[in-house]
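Assemble and predict.
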Amino acid sequence: NFMLTQPPSVSESPGKTVTISCTTDTGSIRGDYVHWYQQRPGSAPTVVIYENKQRPSGVPDRFSGSIDSSSNSAALTISGLKTEDEADYYCQSYDSNNRWVFGGGTKLTVL
Amino acid sequence: QVQLQESGPGLVKPSGTLSLTCAVSGVSIGSGDFYYNWIRQPPGKGLEWIGYVWPSGRANHNPALRSRTSMSVDKSKNQISLSLTSVTAADTGTYYCARYNFDYIDSWGQGILVTVSS
């Protein structure tokens, strides 16, 4: 089964840069098909990066995405951290049958 | 602007069937290139994809839940439905419907908490 692995938690100080990884060792990360969602407590998730590195309108350019096919990994980078960025972040991609797969989620603490 | 709203029982007995609907407003389900996902989240845990359904009714399921799930579309009511059979406490969680526009999920319902308990 295709699985995506994220670190359970990361923390960083306001103004700094943090990177959240999303890796698989059970298949291949499909280029341009990794999405990242932000979920604040009590709310539905919202997309912050789609198709590996695209930002929907309204998402600040402090959020960026990247992919490294050679290492089967994707990453979400948030620069200039703000307290409002504190949330859970999930990567999502697809298996070979176009079924969706979510990573386990990463809790970002900004302190 | 599209809006999604989940509804259904908040409490289901073990071994029973969980049935939810997602009302779509602001746009016709059959218009445009979209499909609709069901995604759930156990309390305090991560997101789990249940499946998606096209306006045509064609669906794709999470293989771990496939034998227990069915999804359908009612264009006359502009809603989609989810049925999950033989539920256990492990099926407790918040259930979301979400529209995918072939770039990303552009609309989520607010979610509905379903508890499986006797």
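Residues 4 and 24 of chain B are 5 Å apart (CA to CA).
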